Amino acid sequence: MNARSRHPANRSAPPRRRIAGRARDIPSFIVMDVLEKAHELEREGRSIVHLEIGEPDFTTPRCICEAAVEAIRRGETHYTHSLGIIELREAVCEHYLDSYGVRIDPDRVLVTSGTSPALFMIFAALLETGDEIIFSDPHYPCYPNFAGFLGARAVLVKGEEEDGFQLRPAEIRKKLTPRTRAILVNSPSNPTGNLLSPERMEAIAGMGYPVISDEIYHGLVYGETAHSILEFTDNAFVLNGFSKRFAMTGWRLGYLIAPREFIRPLQKIQQNFLISAGSVSQWAGVAALRKAAPDVERMKQVYDERRRYMIQRIREMGFGLPVEPSGAFYMLANAGHLSKNSYELAFEILENAHVGITPGIDFGRNAEGYLRFSYANSLENIREGLSRLEKYLATRRVSPSG
Ligand SMILES: Cc1ncc(COP(=O)(O)O)c(C=O)c1O
Prior knowledge:
Elements: H1 3-6, H2 21-25, H3 30-43, E1 49-50, H4 62-74, H5 86-100, E2 109-112, H6 115-126, E3 132-137, H7 142-149, E4 153-158, H8 169-175, E5 180-186, H9 198-205, E6 211-214, E7 236-241, E8 254-257, H10 260-273, H11 279-291, H12 293-316, E9 330-334, H13 342-353, E10 355-356, E11 358-359, E12 370-374, H14 379-398
Parallel strand pairs: 1-10, 3-4, 3-5, 5-6, 6-7
Antiparallel strand pairs: 2-8, 7-8, 9-12, 11-12
Helix pairs in contact: 3-13, 4-11, 5-11, 6-7, 12-14
């Protein structure tokens, strides 16, 4: 090195620190913006009724917690097989046989740390840059965000309100291109709470494209029957988890069922990114599938009572809800008579009525002008929240502020 190259001005500059585009550009969850504002108001001493949250208000059933404690006592505190413990994969297969009459091999099941990583792994295994994946608008916010993160394109099929926003096979056919790699269905759906009819599921399965079926809200269905995509085709990727049905959001446990040739690639993704799902949570999951059916039934009855109350009150208050939602714990109500801007409306309601509600825009452009109400809260709180909202809307009608 000569004196000239040692001079600071002549050294090549270190690269400027910058955030990679994919991390910079991934959209946030708007519902979290509402929740954070709600928490800010709570810190100022306001009482807020939360109807925005997509998380069961129940604590995890006792038999599941006890199984986890026993697992800790037995020393089940290590990494597990990257596909998940065989006991849990077998319990998943039994569950799919009992509930849907479909026979799957435990080798086709991969246990993950929640449904979210399962979703990401399936997208990562199926989609190359520029590939297209079809799903409905409205939809769960992660779907387009994960696709975009991977450089793939979300192709949206608009649902119609009168039809419960469900995917129409004829509309899907219009969107198929040589770049289509998968069609995604979510029934019961977040944000609508509606189910996709078995006839439509069959028609979608019959198109011959891989179908990704997000079945996380199965088990929380009122008066109807949820069908698994595996009843109609093996060319399918099932996503499921324990967060909603078993009130286990904090345990971070889910699973996927995939065609056999995808398991090894998915397993390698799991090994690299996550190693395995949490061992204690997996043992809790075995107890959930084998022992917690009566608890799920009890929670379901409570949700159903809240659902019926909320549907009636939302309609009385003038919101549009042409189709009664019969699954999950959400309803997507038309608030177009109040505002065309659901984001502003949700914040206006939060700040003035002290009720948290999720703006429809979080779930796609087709849900703009709508609000998602969650009944994952006690009947008492739902009563209070809706009565606050009704009172506020009455004053707003006299002197509209938005
Ligand atoms: C439709 C849908 N899929 C997947 C998830 C992710 O759930 P988790 O990662 O807690 O299993 C959620 C959570 O709200 C959801 O609503």
